[in-house]
Amino acid sequence: MTSIEHSPLTRKLSAFVALSDVELDVLERLHQRRRSFVAGREMVHQGQSARAAYILSAGWVCSYKLQADGTRQIVDFQIPGDFLGLRSVLLRTSDHSFEPIVDIEAAEVLTSDLLEAFAQTPRLATAILWAASRDEAMVVEHLVGIGRRDADARMAHFLLELGSRLALVGMGGKDGFDCPLTQYHLADTLGLSAVHVNRVLRQLRESGLVTFRDGHVTFHDYGGLVELAEFDSAYLDQTGPLLK
């Protein structure tokens, strides 16, 4: 298991605050209840009364809402370093479901764990609030994407965002990243059919911008993709720590 100093969550929060030894010790305690979950089995289901959150250490998870007709809208994907179900700690029931895309490792965090951590280290509490605010900003961008961007720009923006998020935790960069998502995941995220997703990915590949094949995204023309998507990463707020 990765030491806390080099864990994905530490890498992520370090974009906001320079963590002290005391704060790292508190983060270590938040990782004490380590659990494994298999792909395809819900961790939390929509409507469940849940009093625990999770810190994702390894693997990918999707969060989604089910519709009355059985279809689903994927709200977001969680990658290592992300919290799962943080709102469920405060709300009476979970307003959406979480399902691992691959086998994952996560730390279970109880309400009492969070309250104790926040009381001991207010700066760490602020950093976790920053992470939650950043997640909300991404949901806003996804809403704009579905409502206002055409399919090519929507796909390009989504892949650029994923690349930026993964780069923050040392799992990607401007060359590309490993990605376990299927075309069906992309369809349920971007409001497209799987056939349309296939067509868009082909167009982006033939334009020399990006290839998504065999579980890997390769950026061929990063600048061109940014221009197509009108991608401004300012909403991800990962240029460097604000608090020293």
Q: Could you characterize what this model shows?
A:
It is a single chain. With 244 residues, this protein is of the alpha+beta class. It has 2 domains: 4-132, Jelly Rolls (Sandwich); 136-236, Winged helix-like DNA-binding domain superfamily/Winged helix DNA-binding domain (Arc Repressor Mutant, subunit A). The protein is built from 8 helices and 11 strands. The strands form 3 sheets. The chain has a 4-stranded antiparallel beta sheet. Helix 6 (183-190) packs across helix 7 (194-206). The longest helix has 27 residues, at 122-148. It is globular. The model has no long low-confidence stretch (mean pLDDT 90).
Short description:
The protein has 244 residues and is α+β, with helices and mostly antiparallel strands. 41% of the residues lie in helices and 21% in strands. It has a four-stranded antiparallel beta sheet. Strands 8-9-11-10 form a four-stranded antiparallel beta sheet.
Helices and strands in order, then pairings?
Elements: H1 8-13, H2 21-30, E1 33-37, E2 52-58, E3 61-66, E4 72-78, E5 83-84, E6 97-100, E7 104-110, H3 111-120, H4 122-148, H5 151-168, E8 172-173, E9 176-178, H6 183-190, H7 194-206, E10 210-213, E11 216-219, H8 222-229
Antiparallel strand pairs: 1-7, 2-5, 2-7, 3-4, 3-6, 8-9, 9-11, 10-11
Helix pairs in contact: 2-3, 3-4, 5-7, 5-8, 6-7
Number of strands: 11
By CATH's scheme, which homologous superfamily of the largest domain applies? Jelly Rolls
Dominant shape: globular
Distance between the termini: 27 Å
Characterize the largest beta sheet: strand count, sense, and whether it forms a barrel.
4 strands, antiparallel
How large a portion of the residues is in β-strands, by DSSP E? 15-25%
Give the helix tally.
8
Mean pLDDT: 90
CATH class of the largest domain: Mainly Beta
CATH topology of the largest domain: Jelly Rolls
Number of structural units classed as domains: 2
Q: Examine the secondary-structure arrangement and name the CATH architecture of the largest domain.
A: Sandwich
Order of helices and strands: HHEEEEEEEHHHEEHHEEH
Structural class of the secondary elements? alpha+beta
